[in-house]
Amino acid sequence: MVKMMLSKQKSKKGDVVLSFFVFGFIMAIAFFLYISNLTEHANKIAELEKIESELLAIEQANERLERYTLEENRAEYIEEIARTRLNLAHPQERIFHIVPAGE
Fold first, then answer.
1. CA pair distance 55, 52, nearest whole angstrom
2. Mean pLDDT to the nearest integer, 70-92
3. How distant, in Å, are the alpha carbons of 15, 92, 100, 102 from that of 95?
């Protein structure tokens, strides 16, 4: 009878210890998944902000190009292309390029 009681107590202790380890394992997995989701969320937010800034730049470029399509702004567009892409200037104009120190 005493042996039966001792074996029941041992099995109860074993069940408690096993339950504790299972609970701890489940909590560790839950914590890992939580941290993983937080980092993924932060990465997605950073990606969204980058895409939004690119979208803003594209919208501004589109507005500038739409402005150039108007007849009265075509000369401005031609001048910008000549200055930026072809490195041209007006006949009496001098262009100075400022080079930072150390270069």
1. 5
2. 81
3. 85, 10, 16, 21
Residue bearing tokens 């979208």: 55
Buried b (16+ CB within 10 A) or exposed e, 6-32: eeeeeeeeeeeeeeeeeeeeeeeeeee
Place 70 in a pLDDT band, splitting at 50, 70 and 90.
confident
DSSP state at residue 1: -
Q: How many Å apart are CA 6 and CA 20, to the nearest integer?
A: 21
Tokens 């980092």 sit at which residue?
A: 39
CB neighbour class for 83 (10 Å; exposed up to 12, middle 13-18, buried from 19) = middle
Locate 7 and state its tokens: 């074996």
Residues present in the chain in total: 103
Quickly list DSSP for 42-73.
Answer: HHHHHHHHHHHHHHHHHHHHHHHHHHHTSGGG
